Amino acid sequence: MDKFDLTRTEHGYRLKVPTLGTSVLRYPLYNKGTGFTEEERERFHLQGLLPAQVNDIDTQAARVFKSIMYNPDPVGRHIDLASLQDRNEHLYYRVLASNLEALMPIVYTPTVGQASQYFSRVFRRARGIWITPEHSGRIEQVLRHAAPFEDVQLMVVTDNEAILGIGDQGAGGMAISVGKLALYCAGAGIHPARTLPISLDVGTDNEDLLEDPLYLGYREKRLRGDAYLALVDEFVAAAKAVFPSVVIQWEDFRKDNALSILNRYRNVVPSFNDDIQGTGAVAYACMHAACRITGNPITESRVLVYGAGAAGYGIAKKILGGLRFNGLEGDALRRSVVAMDSRGILSDVHDFQDYKAELAWPEAWVTDIGLDDRTRRNLLDVIRAYRPNVLIGTSGQADSFNEEVVKAMAEVCDQPVILPMSNPTSISEAKPARVLRWTEGRALVATGSPFDDVDLGDGPQRIGQANNVFIFPGLGLGTIVSGATEVTEGMIGAASKALADSLTDEEIAGRCLMPEVTRLWEICGQVAVEVAERAMRDQVAEEIPHDELVKKIDDYRWRPVYPEMVSA
Predict the structure, then answer these.
(1) Catalytic residue numbers, as ranges
(2) Containing H/E element for 75?
(3) Domains of the chain in sequence order
(4) What is the pLDDT of residues 450-463, one digit of tens each?
(5) What is the pLDDT of residue 235?
(6) Contact 523/511 with Cβ under 8 angstroms?
(7) Is residue 456 within 8 Å of 437, Cβ to Cβ?
């Protein structure tokens, strides 16, 4: 592995470059394209290899962004951005950071879901590391040989089985890991050389992929059971051995594997599952914001979670933990959250996977509110019986929050909080414009995928995106800089509170439950500070005085500007 030798200076950054000529242009973290100065062109033997004009990075970014937006197809734009990343990473992150509102839906949800489906057909250049069952017994060797740099501090790891709402995408899940890390770099300021996307390519049960002659992944049925866990065990041990300070984000695992892996390794390596913990933190932050708008205490929340997969579980657990922290306990706490799956309200009358059993009500409570075997399965009946003031969708069932459902929420609550959080856009439980129209503008809405502003005749209302991007980059940054040995539930809660507190008075006045994406850099910094300080209180990180911590985080954060380049 190479060492990426970048130092911060008074005026920016200085980068040592160990190569000359066309090799400089071929390496995306060294290449500046037309941004090389005349002196650099001379020093690195680039004379004649570039057009005559020297452009600053902002001129380049404006030109490239315009070119990308000429492409009307979102997947086409994704490919254009990936091609830019493959040739000039500084410019890629400059374009992304400067145009987050337009480009985040391209590098992340919803377009990244399509990109994962088309991965084998649009593959251009390898990025990241694929671990397959054939590497068993030598994963450490693979990481040492394949990793581009030795100081990797952050991995996004997926086994590709539960990609957004579209399921098993085999090797295509790498697009998710790459996209998440792009937002770590653009939002939190973690340098790309310190990140590494990982695909645990253990096969696929997607028959379309197995039969596709163009499929690039491990062409076998998925590894399961003890053999699967043994491979993950070996990977975690290898990652720790090769990169001792690494933090791992687990991404898009099937719900049972997601929970078992989270619990299996959370005390082994600093790690978290964004689908479970990040989603829960965002939902709870939305509830806090709603309370700022309505003036109601958060302890008076009655929450209905529609969809009891990994995301629904994570949301319910985070809300219960938050309400417990705010003073609720006993039956009052348990009654404050009800979860539904395909069989209706979870109760102890049914046999469930362990994680669902944690959320199950006593069956007597179900009958106490007037529900029977039929009505407990019907969302509309449950709303009328339970009378929630918060409805959260993690079902992946498009338009399941229909007019009757939404109007029922408006009947039982003056300002219902409605969060259709399933993504991509095609499987969102409701369109925000319809929700606001059906409630005469009274509902407080945030969505998992981006939606346009809604205008009911009194001016546009921005729809906040309840997106994990407001949590995971700052959470990762705070964990890395603090040197935390574990990602605790307290750290997740601190991230959620920091996000809720980040909303401005103007955003609250506009009935927004989430901040603008354009504020991502600022919010990631706030989240990182709170996460790091909570890590200290939880005794998983060494004490650092507040002012020193703030400076340490700021010094760590990388900005996408061209460094001064000197010969190694």
Answers:
(1) 108, 180
(2) helix 74-87
(3) 6-269 (3.40.50.10380), 277-469 (3.40.50.720)
(4) 899 999 988 899 99
(5) 98
(6) no
(7) yes
